[in-house]
Amino acid sequence: MRVPLFHLGYTLDSGQVFRWTFEEGWWSGVVGSRSLRLRQNGDRLEGCDDEAFLRRYFRFDDDLEAIYADISGDERIASKIDRFRGMRLIRQDVWECSASYLLASYSNVPRIKKMIAALCAAYGRKLPDGRYAFPTPQELAEGDTDIAVCRLGYRADWIRCYARSVRDGEFDLDALKAMDYESAVRYLKTVKGIGDKVADCIALFSLDHLEACPVDVRIARAMREQYGVTGSYATVSGYARRHFGRYAGYAQEYLYIAEDRERKKVSARSPDTRTPAP
Q1: Element counts in the chain: helices (H) and strands (E)
Q2: Which of 13, 30, 77, 89 is such that its CA lies 20 to 30 A from the CA of 19?
Q3: Using an 8 Å Cβ cutoff, are 205 and 58 in contact?
Q4: Strand order in 26-31's β-sheet?
Q5: Which is nearest to 118 in space by CA: 22, 35, 18?
Q6: Does position 277 have pLDDT exceeding 80, yes or no?
Q7: Structural domain total, the chain
Q8: pTM of the model
Q9: Mean of the pLDDT values across residues 194-214?
Q10: Same domain, yes or no, for 111 and 201?
Q11: Are 71 and 251 in contact (CB under 8 A)?
């Protein structure tokens, strides 16, 4: 299909989603129970004929040029938009997104990917290509597999309790979808293991609250070094929402990918001085 302003690689490799890998020119991933293999050739996206799914998932309904104009109030963010032009937010399923980010608490992307892969292999349905669907709340709550094999640590209790609460209707995902931003964040934080950052990630990536601005260590560093803003989570996130406005979530993601790429460059230049494990 022909796509609007879009960069597949930047979008899938910007820390938003955890079930995609790049190999031999193709991006392979699983979204829910859908196994996908995609590549971009200029303004064409190849590998999937379901245009309605792609348009929703990659938010092709977002007018990126208008969003850029709205958030490019200073050179600091404008330069990052120029560098990573075409990166889009991804519109994720609320159950998969919330469960994934619950596991993401106090962890890094490689570790998060391993945990989610293990969870899917243990509880998800096996797909024809050998990969696994993301488990439903019912599958996760009722599965016979010992969750210890997933090596989730203390997150194991969080995810099983959350799955049971969604299965039983105690935590209402349909009600969550209908809430405004502040109400959604408050409701999400009633779940054990979901704090400010995880709630903001879920609000931004699955609930269409584009004003949400998750603050992790990269965003905190960017806001401190580039905007002179320090303080509590509420202080930094609140400043970003006021400064960038209704599309603060997009601005946050451009700050994130720039910080992430810079961190990886520094890591690659630094000698490995770690002591080998015995």
Answers
A1: 14, 4
A2: 77
A3: no
A4: 20-23, 26-31, 34-41, 44-46
A5: 18
A6: no
A7: 2
A8: 0.92
A9: 97
A10: yes
A11: yes
